[in-house]
Design brief:
alpha/beta, 6-stranded parallel β-sheet, 44% helix
């Protein structure tokens, strides 16, 4: 909640200086998402600052345990109904389950940089990344690829259909 309030203040300062801030990404834990009044408290903060929920993307950076899955799905749904965007980050790490992604109505799925190692040289890696991108498109979710180091990697992954990119190349 502190991060949401700080982000609101930063967005206000940028607006006062006529600087367009696209959006603020706030990393959020599953523990936080399952707190009883999280959505209500976030809405109260953004309403107090008169900031559009579309200015925020909550980035879930850890595994979603089966025991709290329904609660997380409910919180994601409530946040999205208010206009907030949601991202699941680090697809490709051992704790991220591809089988569960279709259950979460999110705006973005981030592919971890470890997934693109050797992408220029390995057809198997290329096919894996392409499959993930295609899967995400079929569930109407944008793809962010992290760890782009060269123009060649960017060109290849861009051609595969990823929507956003980050890494040392940029």
């Amino acid at each position: 909640l502190w991060a949401v309030e700080e982000a609101c203040e930063a967005i206000k300062r940028c607006a006062e200086r006529e600087v367009d801030m696209n959006s603020v990404i706030i990393w959020v834990s599953v523990k936080t998402l399952t707190k009883k009044n999280f959505v209500t408290q976030v809405k109260k903060i953004v309403d107090t600052y008169d900031i559009s929920p579309e200015s925020f993307c909550f980035n879930i950076t850890e595994s979603i345990l089966e025991a709290v899955k329904d609660k997380v799905i409910g919180t994601i749904s409530a946040l999205r109904e208010l206009g907030f965007r949601i991202s699941i980050d680090d697809l490709g790490l051992e704790y991220t389950s591809l089988s569960n992604l279709a259950h979460y109505d999110v705006d973005y799925i981030g592919i971890h940089k470890s997934m693109i190692e050797d992408i220029l040289y390995s057809e198997k890696v290329q096919n894996t990344v392409q499959g993930i991108i295609d899967f995400c498109k079929k569930i109407d979710t944008q793809v962010i690829v992290d760890g782009i180091e060269t123009k060649e990697e960017f060109d290849l992954i861009n051609k595969m259909g990823a929507d956003r990119f980050s890494g040392p190349y940029f």
